[in-house]
Amino acid sequence: MIIHWKRTESVLFTFLVVICPCFILIIKQSFHSNRGPVIVENVIRTFNGTKTYTPSAESDNCGRNLVLLRQLEEIAKKRKVPDIDCSAIFSADEEKLKETVNIAKASRGGLKSAFYLNATQSCQDFQKSRGYVTSSLTSEEGNFPLAFSLILYTDLEMAERLLRAVYRPQNVYCLHVDRKVSVNYLKAITAIAACFPNVFISSKRVNVVWGKFSVLKAELICMEELWQYSSWKYFINLAGQEFPLRTNLELVRILKAFNGANSVSGRIKKNDERRWSNAPPLSGIQPVKGSVHIVVNRHYVDFILHTKAALKLLKWTKRTRVPDETFFPTLNFNPQFSINGSYSGSPNEIHQFMNRYKIWYTQDLCAGRLRRGICILSTGQTNSKDVWVLTLIT
Known about the structure:
With about 400 residues, the protein is α/β, with parallel strands linked by helices. About 40% of the residues lie in helices and about 10% in strands. It has one domain (about 5-260, about 355-390). The chain has a five-stranded mixed sheet, sandwiched between helices. A two-stranded antiparallel sheet has the order 1-6. Helix 12 (about 300-305) crosses helix 13 (about 310-315). The two termini are about 20 Å apart. Pathway: Protein modification; protein glycosylation. This is Protein xylosyltransferase.
């Protein structure tokens, strides 16, 4: 099983306008299975002063799930989207695909900060109208909380959509808002976070610049603040322009199957050595180039925050090029750090990480366009096996 995330930008709206009605049908069908409503033994209601969870009665959660179902059904009815032949779209019917693109072009633009500032005047109404899942849904999910960091700098509606997609009351979310965002953006995202007891804006904010240490710094800020919440099992970091293709339950089951293993990409190639040519590697440490996006257990985060070895490596990383692509992989692929769940094989093995799949410019698979060498897919790629088996980038 693989964890799937997708990189997105404004064109995501094109995809969601068309595809969401299809997903809603699937969601409704799953709720109306013969097994009846899912009963959850523990519903996360609030985070109290000690940052622990408050359980609720099983019958109470059953009722909450039924109410949530009705709310989502009402939202689905109100979507101002014409009837769409989903099967034709997924079969790559050229005429239907053209129709969907035209529908998206004729649709409204993204929601602005004024909308969110007004909508969050009543948090209860905001959660309901936007379709947030305010129940843990299953005891399996309630007993396996996750921690997320969301690094945000643009496209407010997309950021809110991402939060809504991954939100569950048992998880905890740190939002790092780039220092260069507008005042209205910051006010709006702060108002959104204030509507949830388990969502917060990081107390420190940096101006994130691609390829610089600030990318890594933003992640470390959220790691440090998320560490205060003692119950989560795994940490997942997201960019504000990503979107999940797995439900929270699927994530939980995948991570339980990991059995404590970390998912961090890495490789060792001769030409990568240019990145640390001005900073000789630490004695006994093999630098590894990979990705800043990771899925790691609590011990990995604990090691980063509280050991001299990690601090020493971090100081060295600051002197390298694109440090965010070196720090996490080097920790994961050097067994001498003795981090629980780290990778003991060769970094050059093909399947040493499973949290993301990205279609790069060297692969002849992209039906959309490229940005920073990564494929930005479009609706035309909905029939691709690479999209549904591996990832969806729009």
